[in-house]
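Aggregate trends can hide what the representation actually does to any particular protein. For completeness, the protein is quoted in full, as a sequence line and a line of structure tokens.
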Amino acid sequence: MSDLINSPLGVAHTASGDEPTANPTTVRVQKESPILFSTPMVRALVAGTKTQTRRVVPHPNWLEGQPATGIVRPYRAEDGWWLDACWRGVQSRYGERGDILWVKETWRTLHQFDSLRPLDVPDGSELHYHADQERVSPTFSRFGKIRQSIFMRRWMSRLILRITDLRIERLREITAEDAAAEGIEAVTAPDGRPAWKNYLFETAHPRRDRPITDREHRVVGFADPRESYFSLWDSINGIGASNENPWVWVITFARDASQP
């Protein structure tokens, strides 16, 4: 019988490299975690067109330099993800299947609370969400300064997501179907053909480290949804960031059915 090697995630591995076996004494408690989304992606969540998100795996230094495909491949164990040939665990900060994500988005509170820290805003106070800017009501003038999403508290969140699947892959392994599930926007090209939005269109992105090429800022949309998603990634993380092809968590979720 093979000797067992104890993993840091509570999963036993055989010295011969067999698949891991779950520790039967492990009892997992459902968790809730905050997650930030940009205003366009919040609108996609509200519209029901976004059911996936990708987040960089904050991997340790031993993963640096490994090829995009090849000897390092991820697989799922009972209580975490593992990268084969290393026997080293990578746990998601966002949770696992069945866990809850509560969305942080840009917001405003009433003028009278503008001087208060987010922690001091009275629970249950009326809020306005920046993603709803296009649906401004006559009472909008009652709301004050814009507050960044990172400062949103749990009770302020209106969007609750339940994780239905979680995996690790390289960013550029995304399929056309999954790119559409990321909530990218459908547009019409100048010639009338349907396309997917170029999020770098005529954008002077403040974090870019090189000039934007004509293709990057003069193309309204792409026929390939993957190209649209890569332009979205670059608009958030810096021009060319998608070419770095990082390891990412692929989080698939469903919006809580009890929400309006």
Remarks:
- Residues 106-156 form one domain.
- Residues 225-237 form the longest helix (13 residues).
- Confidence is low (pLDDT under 50) at residues 1-22, 67-71, 204-212.
- The radius of gyration is 21 Å.
